[in-house]
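Sanity check

After download, print the first record. It should look like this:
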Amino acid sequence: MGISAFMDRSYRIAPDGRSVICYAVVGLEENESLSEALAWRRDEIGRNGLELASAVLELRALMTLDDMLAAEREVGPEATLTLTRDQSRLLCQISGAYVTERDTDSYQPPEERDRIARLRGLAGPLMDLCCEFAAADEEAREHLVSV
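Expected structure tokens:
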């Protein structure tokens, strides 16, 4: 795993002026691993059915996030993602769930083991990202109130 995945990040006020966005640098392999985890979650939702509106909304959020990851892979090996707080939370949750579900004692192909290791390595930086987002949102709200 690239040591800088999600470590090189900065926060800005979003264009709406009321929320915060994050610019984070993510390597190609980490991007691809996150995309695989999103695909895994989409498959899970599909197997459980789309009768509930919440499942449809989650599926749309996953597809939007995956499209963004795919677009950034086109840019190059060290692409900068622009994330909202909800998107960062979703990446953190799904990558953790993927590792929990897929990291078993049974045989896994080497590429799957590599993917699991990359996603496990992203756990800390993604959790830090989510925590910093909370602080950045709070700071932005305080700034809006005082202006």
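If your output differs, re-run the checksum step. Summary of this record's structure: Strands lie at 9-13, 20-27, 78-83.
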